[in-house]
Model the fold of this input.
Amino acid sequence: MAQKSIQVRIDEDLKMRAEAVFRSIGIDGPTAVRVFYSKVAATGGIPFSLGKEAEPEYTPEQIAKLDQMVDEAMQPGNSFGPFNTVEEMFDHMQQQKI
Done:
């Protein structure tokens, strides 16, 4: 396989901090870049969120209802799925007023 080089300009402090993390897990900068490129190619996208994501905040009542649903789903013969997509699961949860 043909090899190509890339060159990137990056803030020195950022580079040093990132390389410290790489060293702590036993890889170097070029390996980290290859891992990133491989993951992008394999997933067809950036392998992490680029936007600011808010943590969901659940009320105690919602948590209790979710716990109840899990307990019921664990009982033989009871199931709330299977769901084909996360959206289907959330739709079901919305119908249950969770």
